TrEMBL record:
Protein name according to UniProt: (2S)-methylsuccinyl-CoA dehydrogenase
Pfam families in UniProt: Acyl-CoA_dh_1 (PF00441), Acyl-CoA_dh_M (PF02770), Acyl-CoA_dh_N (PF02771)
Obligatory cofactor(s): FAD
InterPro entries (alphabetical): Acyl-CoA_DH_CS (IPR006089), Acyl-CoA_Oxase/DH_mid-dom (IPR006091), Acyl-CoA_Oxase/DH_mid-dom_sf (IPR046373), AcylCo_DH-like_C (IPR036250), AcylCo_DH/oxidase_C (IPR009075), AcylCoA_DH/ox_N (IPR013786), AcylCoA_DH/ox_N_sf (IPR037069), AcylCoA_DH/oxidase_NM_dom_sf (IPR009100)
Keyword Signal: no
Record keyword Flavoprotein present: yes
Acyl-CoA dehydrogenase/oxidase N-terminal domain boundaries: 23-128
Organism: Methylobacterium jeotgali
Lineage: Bacteria, Pseudomonadati, Pseudomonadota, Alphaproteobacteria, Hyphomicrobiales
């Protein structure tokens, strides 16, 4: 039996003072925006299962946050995964969906075959004027994206898409929907993912294009935007809207295969999910800290009782640990490391932590935690989803273990 090599991550490089100061300033700006603008909206709209207002999205666009990872020459901030996740953690602390909407910019939907059009779309993405939805999963293909059955059939200079997509968040309100579809069946000896390519379905916000219909999925949490099941029946996409990659992947080309770019993008998405989970868990810790000091029993604030104090300390320590881990992995990605195992690890640990911490927060709130009068129930509902999307915890364990152990 052989042991696979476990590559140790490179130690973090010291940042120049200006970069550290810029990160602190960006974090403080995002934290103030989340507290003063996002949180009041979340408190009002989440319980109504309402969508975030367009004005909120426009306010984030004005700050340049939809272009955090887009190069400066295309109008973006020219920063990295670290800064992208830094802002997302702060926004998710107020409302998970707002921390998520940033992913619908960042160069998504720009990897067209035409270079000039790509540059135009990158500039729109950086300004928050090109915000999309992603349609990867299907009723029978979630964690196993290689099982996608939606078909793309070539007809002249266009492709015709037919199939069913599930879990397409923001699909109706978006400027476009990226659809992963199968252009051909794999040849013998090829991986099951062979023949999968992403396509750009351009649309007007608030409408579906010809051949696409959908119905919203009634979720228990993650409110702020609607999540859709889409039916594609002859949706026509010009050849120019066949994409070379997802997630603003500058390293992809038309012959490299769209599925590979999806996998690369998922590493960033998993670190992003870890940061969002930390934001939700941090909210639970901060609200619980305040509650333990305001709630009195037996003539004392309940924060005086050692069992509750120690529980809060454990919660805070877990959040700090997960934050340090996502920051390390984000740094690796910014250094050009693939960090596939690390991305899976941090997604697994941070999201499972968020479930534990928000559950403990509800317990420490007692009966008041099991009401909609307190925010903690929202944190609990949203944290539960983080262990599922962007690959379930079980999938993350499989990714890590498959890279540690050979199969007999």
């Amino acid at each position: 039996m052989t042991q696979r090599e476990i590559k140790e991550p490179r130690p973090p490089e010291l940042l120049p003072p200006w970069r550290r100061e810029a990160r602190v300033a960006l974090q403080q700006e995002a934290r103030a925006f989340a507290r003063d603008t996002v949180l009041p909206l979340a408190d009002r709209l989440d319980r109504e299962k309402a969508e975030m207002p367009r004005s909120l999205i426009e306010a984030m666009a004005e700050k340049g946050w939809f272009g955090i990872t887009i190069p400066r020459e295309h109008g973006g901030l020219g920063l990295g995964v670290f800064e992208y996740c830094l802002v997302s953690e702060e926004l998710a602390r107020a409302w998970l969906s707002v921390g998520s909407i940033l992913a619908r910019g960042q160069g998504l939907g720009t990897q067209t075959l035409d270079e000039e059009r790509r540059r135009t779309l990158l500039a729109k993405s950086a300004r928050g004027k090109w915000i999309g939805a992603i349609a990867l999963s299907e009723p029978g293909a979630g964690s196993d994206l290689a099982g996608v059955e939606t078909r793309a059939v070539r007809e002249g200079d266009a492709w015709v898409l037919t199939g069913t997509k599930r879990w397409a968040g923001f699909a109706l309100a978006a400027d476009f929907v990226e659809v992963l579809a199968r252009t051909r069946d794999p040849e013998p000896g090829e991986p099951r993912s062979a023949g999968l390519e992403p396509f750009l379905v351009v649309k007007e916000p608030g409408t579906f294009p010809v051949g696409m219909t959908g119905h919203p999925i009634d979720k228990i949490g993650y409110h702020g935007f609607l999540t859709w099941q889409l039916e594609l029946d002859g949706v026509r996409v010009p050849e120019s809207d066949r994409l070379t990659g997802l997630y603003g992947d500058e390293g992809a080309d038309a012959d490299s295969g769209g599925f590979a770019s999806v996998q690369r993008g998922l590493n960033i998405a998993r670190v992003h999910t870890a940061a969002r989970a930390v934001g939700v868990a941090r909210a639970a810790v901060e609200d619980t800290q305040a509650y333990l000091q305001e709630r009195e029993q037996f003539g004392h604030p309940i924060g005086d009782f050692q069992a509750l104090r120690f529980a809060l300390a454990d919660m805070a320590a877990e959040v700090a640990q997960a934050r340090a881990f996502w920051q390390q992995v984000a740094h690796l990605l910014d250094q050009g490391e693939p960090a596939e195992s690390e991305s899976a690890m941090v997604k697994l640990l941070a999201t499972e932590m968020a479930v534990r911490v928000t559950n403990q927060a509800m317990q420490l709130h007692g009966g008041n935690g099991y009401t909609t009068e307190r925010r903690v129930e929202r944190y609990w509902r949203d944290a539960r989803l983080t262990t599922i999307f962007e690959g379930t915890s079980e999938i993350q364990r499989r990714i890590v273990s498959d890279r540690m152990l050979p199969r007999s």
